Amino acid sequence: MIAPERLQTLDARKESLESFLRAWYPPEHDGAAKGPAISPAPVEAPALLRWWWSLVAARPILRGVQNKFLAPTKFVADPFLIYGNPPRAIEPSPVVWPFWSENQGVVTLACESRGDDPIVWASSDYQPTYTLCAVREREPLSGQLIRYSLLEAMYGAIEGGQWGTLALDTFDDIVRRCSMHRLPLEPTGYPADRMEFFTAPGFIAVAELDEAAGEAHAMFGGNRAGALAAIEPMVDDPTEFGIA
User: Fold this and answer.
1) What is the pLDDT of residue 130?
2) 205 DSSP β-pair partners
3) Would 78 be classed as within a structural domain?
4) What is the distance between the alpha carbons of residues 140 and 115, in angstroms, rounded to a whole number?
5) Structural domain count of the chain
6) Does residue 239 lie within any of the structural domains?
7) Is residue 222 situated within a structural domain?
8) In-domain check, residue 236
9) Which of 29, 7, 4, 13 is nearest to 222 (CA)?
């Protein structure tokens, strides 16, 4: 599993993500996940994006089961606008590389070409027919690859993989009793939901914590049957979370 202390440098993040994918998705778990042959990332794509695509291009299961990691293609918007009142244009418009899309197209993430760990922008408008208006994400590309790899791992988990709601005190108790560790990833910029990611021996979790309502909207995922057995007696309805 990805350990919080292994997220301090770019090299450590890459090593942690690659190790997680290898452990979570052994070849026999590919199952019915099929997809067309994917070309290598263009040589002008950012190095980190080329590295990522070299990991996932040949294995469709790694590219998402609910949402999708996208094949690297460059995009230039003119003007490139930042959300605000009023929106502000970036000049000259940066070249960006859309790399992940929510399943209904509500938000797509794209990284810039510059830097070892490029800046990421979130928008719903990475299409030539729209005037792009984007939000800068706090996490660079490496953090976004980790965040959405974990999210897709939960959606495709052998056990769990369903969102449910529980009392915040109950979630805090699960964190303590199951030795869960929060990953130090910055919250998303768009949408504004604060998704917190956790790892634990044998499973991973994501939660949106609503302190005002005293609730946690959470999802747990394990890559083997029985991985979430410790959580089952701690929630009112385990089936809400996909726990048999």
Assistant:
1) 46
2) 198, 220
3) yes
4) 10
5) 1
6) no
7) no
8) no
9) 29
